[in-house]
Write a structure and sequence with these properties.
Blueprint (H helix, E strand, L loop, with lengths): L4 H7 L36 E5 L2 E5 L6 E2 L4 E10 L2 E7 L8 E2 L2 E3 L6 H13 L1 E14 L7 E13 L7 E8 L10 H18 L1
Parallel strand pairs: 4-9
Antiparallel strand pairs: 1-2, 2-3, 4-5, 4-7, 5-6, 5-10, 8-9
Bound molecules: zinc ion.
Keywords: Hydrolase
GO molecular function: hydrolase activity
Protein name: NUDIX domain-containing protein
Length: about 200
């Protein structure tokens, strides 16, 4: 499945970095603090700091391995039903008990679209079909890592709504009556964009 540059152009500007959440929910504000690796995962030698293209990285003086710190991609789905959006309550830390768009981290070698469909099924019990790219957001406040949140629009194909895996509750919510708190800033930004889009559509 591919979406052309038209879709990208149409979506440009959405999901851009913003200074603060616009839905009135204050950011929870835990700084990402993934521990820095100290030893080489290839040969076990103690890593030493180097500078590469002006960026400080930890590298192995013996085998040359460089421990890059890159954001981790996460994928999820925007599913609407009768004007309401599908959300899942987090069953585990971080942000246990807060709500989010069904989404999760990509497995190595997995296609982002597959991640999105898999996470929807695991968390909500619903089999969905993706219908287009919704937006891409920077994840800055997940304490585990910096992330890139890729969200697709999706439609329900079949399945019964049932919380599973990382979710303790699932449900559809009116965009002006979302449950609180929403777990991550990227999710709040996406829901803000969704609300603006739906408002524009209903005018
Ligand atoms: Zn090494």
């Amino acid at each position: 499945m591919r979406w052309g540059s038209l879709m990208i152009a149409k979506r440009k500007g959405q999901g851009a970095a913003r200074g603060k959440a616009r839905d009135g929910v204050a950011p929870i504000g835990t700084r990402p603090s993934r521990p820095k690796p100290r030893y080489c995962i290839v040969c076990g030698t103690k890593l030493r700091p180097i500078r590469e293209h002006g960026v400080r990285r930890m590298a192995c003086p013996r085998c040359g391995f460089i421990a890059y710190r890159n954001p981790v991609p996460a994928c999820g789905v925007i599913v609407m039903r009768s004007g309401e959006v599908l959300l899942a309550k987090r069953a585990h830390e971080p942000r246990r008990g807060s709500w989010g768009i069904p989404a999760g981290f990509m497995e190595y070698g997995e296609h982002p679209e597959r991640t999105a469909v898999r996470e929807a099924k695991e968390e909500t019990g619903l089999i969905v079909r993706l219908s287009g790219l919704f937006g891409v957001y920077a994840g800055r406040d997940d304490p585990r890592t910096r992330a890139v949140l890729i969200l697709y629009r999706a439609k329900i194909v079949r399945g019964r709504l049932k919380a599973g895996d990382d979710a303790s509750e699932v449900g559809f919510f009116a965009l002006d009556r979302l449950p609180k708190p929403i777990a991550f800033r990227a999710h709040r930004e996406a829901l803000g964009d969704l609300r603006r889009m739906e408002r524009r559509k209903s005018r």
